[in-house]
Specification:
about 100 residues, alpha+beta, Gyrase A, domain 2, 2 helices
Length: about 100
Amino acid sequence: MKEFTFYGDLYEHRAKAVEALSRAGLELFSDYSSVDIEHNLYGLEVGGFNNEELALKALEVLRATFPEWGFATFLEYETGEPFWARLSRDREEIPSFEF
């Protein structure tokens, strides 16, 4: 399992992402509910979209804002919960378990 690493610069990236999303017409608390920092992946997760179109637009904005980050994730919940999009520098590791 990968050890936790704290990346303080992700807080600056979070502010940059909120500004970029706003310039693209996506407003925090109106169109989405949060921008969370993902230290384990060196990335950001934007969540709380009510529809797929807005979440995909946010993912495009993130990719344009952070072109060096190559791992994008888009999730659609089947339970009626909000959509979210994540962009990260590092690939998500799928946990493995030894028995």
